[in-house]
Amino acid sequence: MNPHVDDQHGGAGGRPPMSPAQAWDVLIAGHERFLRGEPRNSNMRREDFADLTRGQQPYATILGCSDSRVPPELIFDAGPGDLFVIRVAGNLLSPEVAGSLQYAGAHLETPLFVVLGHSDCGAVKAALGSLLQGVQHFSRIQILVDSILPSLEHVDRARPLQDALAAAVEANVRTTMRAILESPEGQSRVRNGSRKLVGAIYDIASGRIRVLDQA
């Protein structure tokens, strides 16, 4: 890990602009501190938040699941103002979420975007239940489930349930990433290297993230 890049972490005010690669290094350095049990940002003071009245300059945007066990700020040992976090069950890309991502890119100019799924995702599990067993859910939940179902098209239905769920979680993250890449912003900014898009899976049991290959 580049120690110089790591030293840039620690507050939104006046942070030098980062490249996508630098932002990724900072994010991973924070995750490594989390895994070691050596967080820098565990004792936030009121003054730390008051300093942010001057504005925000997050170095990464995280699209994650609403699951209470997957808090991005803790997983990446990030301080106030470091991350622009969007959370929705199943880390789905709805029009509202897409608008939030566009805001992060166009106005906050975050160089790094991460789609963060997680093990044992309840929303994906519900979608898998509908796919495999025809389970029907409450009306609003079913709308959510129906949005996930297309991403599970190639999940092997013959696999054991936990294996199928793990594959479904990854497929769901990749579907969201693909939708972002196919947007005008994704085509113009991610593909030319001015923004970086990463998919990852957080394992609740171990606390580790697994970065998905970019295939």
Can you walk me through this structure?
The chain has one domain: Carbonic anhydrase (Beta-carbonic Anhydrase, Chain A, 3-Layer(aba) Sandwich). The protein is 44% helix and 13% strand. The chain has 9 helices and 5 strands. The protein has a 5-stranded mixed sheet, sandwiched between helices. Strand 4 and strand 5 form a beta hairpin. Helix 6 crosses helix 7. It is globular.
Q: Given the structure, what is the number of helices? A: 9
Percent of residues in helical segments? 40-55%
Shape: globular
Tell me the total number of β-strands.
5
Quickly name the level 1 CATH class: Alpha Beta
Query: CATH topology, what is it called?
Result: Beta-carbonic Anhydrase, Chain A
The ordered string of helix (H) and strand (E) elements is: HHHEHEHEHHHHEE
**What is the CATH superfamily classification?**
Carbonic anhydrase
Radius of gyration: 18 Å
For the biggest β-sheet, the strand order reads 2-1-3-4-5
- Class from helix and strand fractions: alpha/beta
SSE topology:
Layout: H1 3-7, H2 20-36, H3 46-50, E1 60-64, H4 72-75, E2 83-87, H5 95-108, E3 112-118, H6 122-133, H7 139-148, H8 161-181, H9 184-190, E4 196-202, E5 209-211
Parallel strand pairs: 1-2, 1-3, 3-4
Antiparallel strand pairs: 4-5
Helix pairs in contact: 6-7
